Amino acid sequence: MSRYQEEIYNAILNYDEERLKTICKSALDNNKIKPIELVKIISDIMSEYGEKFEKEEIMLPELIVVANIVKSTIDEIIDPAIRASGEKRETKGKIVIGTVESDVHSIGKDLVASFLFSNGYEVYNLGVDVPAAKFLEKAEEVNADIIGLSSLITLSLDFQKQVIDVLKKRGVRDKYKVIVGGAPTSADWAKKIGADAWADDSLDAVKKVNELLKK
Ligand code: B12
């Protein structure tokens, strides 16, 4: 493990957001490391955390804290350095994600967004209670590859279907891959409404999105 890998790993392990930001900032300010290399180190650590969560070695609150610390470090320290250096942050694809109309649950969707982001995707998080037309509007604006729909209450499920119906109605269904998720959803539900994929949790979401973009 390199010195930076080790220091970053320890900062994340101790949930020490300030320390993580300081390490990254000082490494970048002193030209010790390229910003994209930092993203790679952090992405690898995130994958490891995802696996720990799957094996139930860590619990959800820890995963949420880690995802938030990482997202905020990338947003505040690493992304600006990438932009300033003129380097292109390699993006694996663009994803528009949100919780559908009538539903205000955000934690799971934000976790999925952070995971996709820290795994190299450009993520546009529209928040909660998002009307169908808004998903399409943003997807068109940023030329997205994927639209991700979250639902936590049974009553909001119909609004997932509504987004797909809107895409069909506007003749752009084939332009985007649609992935759905959230506790009341399932692979069967995804199939029923004509979505392209379903994922059970954030790690699975990264896997499924990788697969969707490979096709
Ligand atoms: C926290 C919570 C709230 C919070 C939400 C805070 C917030 N900012 O998100 C508050 C208090 C606001 C809330 C409100 C309500 N809630 Co609530 N809430 C929950 C609770 C306890 C946890 C949800 C959660 O965050 N889980 C943790 C995250 C990490 O898991 P997750 O959301 O499932 O997400 C994972 C996967 O589903 C997946 N995923 C999620 N989204 C996406 C999207 C994509 C694209 C993909 C690929 C994957 C994916 O990956 C995520 C990460 O692993 C659940 C109970 C439960 N055990 O789920 C009830 C629950 C969802 N709530 C419920 C209800 C009924 C309500 C209310 C209607 C209550 C009321 N009477 O007012 C309101 C709804 C208001 C509304 N219009 O939306 C019910 C839903 C029942 C149903 N099937 O309809 C539940 C199941 C509780 C219950 N047993 O009755 N709630």
List keywords for this structure.
5-stranded parallel β-sheet; 215 residues; 5 strands; Rossmann fold; 59% helix; Methyltransferase, Methionine Synthase (B12-binding Domains), Chain A, domain 1; binds cobalamin
Secondary-structure blueprint:
Blueprint: H1 3-13, H2 17-29, H3 35-54, H4 60-85, E1 94-99, H5 107-118, E2 122-125, H6 132-142, E3 146-150, H7 157-169, E4 177-181, H8 187-193, E5 197-199, H9 202-214
Parallel strand pairs: 1-2, 1-3, 3-4, 4-5
Helix pairs in contact: 1-2, 2-4, 3-4, 4-5, 5-9, 6-7
The structure holds cobalamin.
What does this structure look like?
This protein is about 60% helix and about 10% strand. By secondary structure, the protein is an alpha/beta fold. A five-stranded parallel beta sheet has the order 2-1-3-4-5, with helices on both faces. α2 (about 15-30) runs parallel beside α4 (about 60-85), α4 packs across α5 and α5 crosses α9 (about 200-215). The protein starts with a helix and ends with a helix. About 45% of the residues are buried. The model has no long low-confidence stretch (mean pLDDT about 90). It binds cobalamin. Cobalamin (B12) binds near residues 103, 112, 148 and 205.
Largest sheet: 5 strands, parallel
Strand composition percent? 5-15%
Provide the spatial order of strands within the biggest beta sheet. 2-1-3-4-5
What is the top-level CATH class of the largest domain? Alpha Beta
> Which runs of at least 5 residues are low in confidence (pLDDT < 50)?
none
**What molecules are bound to this protein?**
cobalamin
Counted by DSSP, the helix tally is 9
